[in-house]
Design a protein that fits this description.
Key component of the proton channel; it plays a direct role in the translocation of protons across the membrane. Keywords: ATP synthesis, Cell membrane, CF(0), Hydrogen ion transport, Ion transport, Membrane, Transmembrane, Transmembrane helix, Transport. The protein is about 70% helix and about 5% strand. By secondary structure, the chain is mainly alpha-helical. It has one domain. A hairpin with a 5-residue loop joins strand 1 and strand 2. Helix 4 runs parallel beside helix 6 and helix 5 packs antiparallel against helix 6. The longest helix is centred in the last third of the chain and has 40 residues.
Length: about 220
Amino acid sequence: MFNVEISLTTGYPLGLSSEIVTQWVIMLFLAIGGFLLTRNLKNVPDKKQAALEKLYVTIESVVKSTMGESYTNFIPYVGSLIIYLLCMNFTGLIGIKPATQSLSVTAGLGLTTFMTIHYTAIKRNGLFDYAKGYAHPFIVMLPINIMERVMLPVSLALRLFGNMLAATLLVDMVYEALAGVASIAQIGLPIIVHSYFDVFDGTIQMLVFSMLTMIQIKLVSEE
């Protein structure tokens, strides 16, 4: 973990954490990769293009089965969210702590989901009908509905943060325990640990966050 402070011309320091740098690197990597992989597309796809099309069709199927045909415009957003979360959760495989083990990162993701949900609901229903949804099905439900919608991004952020932080701490504990036995024990043996906590658990947390995002977009928009 590192933290760099950059002094601005105003004299105020700007904190630059490892999580921010990791996210910038991932975004740059995905932007360059997306550009290189999607240029010169052909009518008769090669293996690279066939793999990309398979990925798109898979995400399209997930969006349609979860949200319905009328929400296909969310395929790019959901696809980007899935790939971005996977990249962040998998950085432990290359010795970098996942950015999602930081509450500030998961809080930002939760806030993004919150804004997407409510922007979509207002756009689809209009401001008046959107506001009426808070009193659904009865006016006495107003406080509960408000609390439920406010707590959604909080629960999403805390769930992702808690699971990824716990996974990171457990992996660190395994390395410390192996170091106490013999330094060479840290080579090879942690593969099983990384396979579970980075790959399996990281994928599960991505699925939970993405599925809850899609479900809430649909529910709030149609309530």
